[in-house]
């Protein structure tokens, strides 16, 4: 459990836009994603993945980014606010990138999102802010690729999600598997 962790902002967009407008609240729908969002659905909605195989399961129903990343980027000269990288939920106080696959994020009293993997940012980020892609996808000291643009998940239980709601983390039983790109 992440003590003091909260939802800082929520965002959604009915269109396939790069950024998503910040909202007063969103509603998560079990097995589907964010109500009214372009990525809502049982099968994949990301356009490049639809082109490859439109029947593959949608493991990217909800995109979450930690506010601390946005602050790090601001300190490096990138002006990035909540929703601007396409995330639906901005959290504070949760090490999203350190979670294992299968961790469940409890957002407020009702909504539950299972973490499926890491977001793999695309070249559109360069149009938003030159140099940002290199900052969000880089090589670690061991030479492995590090993806820092948040995590993706599927909605286990629906419900309203609003800024200020608590975020609790439930870790899976058994061995913890590292997140991979989805």
- What's the mean pLDDT score? 95
Multimeric state: single chain
Number of domains: 1
Approximately how much beta-strand content do the residues carry?
25-35%
Strand order of the largest sheet: 2-1-6-5-11-8-7-13
Distance between the termini: 24 Å
Q: What's the number of helices?
A: 4
State the low-pLDDT regions, or none. Answer: none
CATH architecture: Beta Barrel
Protein name: MOSC domain-containing protein
Organism: Nocardiopsis flavescens
Pfam families: MOSC
GO molecular function: catalytic activity; molybdenum ion binding; pyridoxal phosphate binding
Please tell me about this protein's structure.
14% of the residues lie in helices and 30% in strands. By secondary structure, it is an alpha+beta fold. The protein has helices at 47-52, 67-75, 124-128, 132-136; strands at residues 6-11, 22-23, 26-29, 33-34, 62-66, 89-92, 104-107, 111-118, 137-139, 145-147, 151-157, 159-161, 167-170. The two termini are 24 Å apart. The mean pLDDT is 95. It has one domain (6-170): Beta Barrel (M1 Pyruvate Kinase, Domain 3), CATH 2.40.33.20. The strands form three sheets. An eight-stranded mixed beta sheet has the order 2-1-6-5-11-8-7-13. The protein contains four helices and 13 strands.
């Amino acid at each position: 459990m992440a003590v003091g962790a909260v939802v800082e902002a929520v965002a959604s967009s009915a269109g396939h836009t790069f950024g998503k407008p910040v909202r007063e609240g969103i509603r998560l729908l079990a097995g589907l994603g964010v109500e009214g969002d372009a990525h809502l659905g049982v099968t994949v909605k990301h356009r490049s993945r639809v082109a490859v195989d439109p029947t593959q399961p949608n493991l990217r129903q909800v995109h979450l980014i930690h506010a601390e990343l946005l602050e790090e980027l601001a300190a490096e000269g990138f002006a990035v606010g909540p929703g601007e990288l396409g995330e639906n939920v901005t959290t504070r106080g949760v090490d999203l990138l350190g979670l294992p696959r299968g961790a469940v994020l409890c957002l407020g009293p009702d909504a539950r999102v299972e973490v499926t993997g890491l977001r793999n940012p695309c070249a559109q980020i360069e149009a938003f802010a030159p140099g940002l892609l290199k900052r969000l996808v880089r090589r670690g000291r061991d030479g492995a690729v590090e993806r820092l643009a948040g995590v993706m998940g599927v909605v286990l239980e629906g419900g309203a999600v609003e800024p200020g709601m608590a975020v609790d983390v439930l870790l899976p039983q058994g061995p913890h598997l590292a997140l991979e790109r989805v």
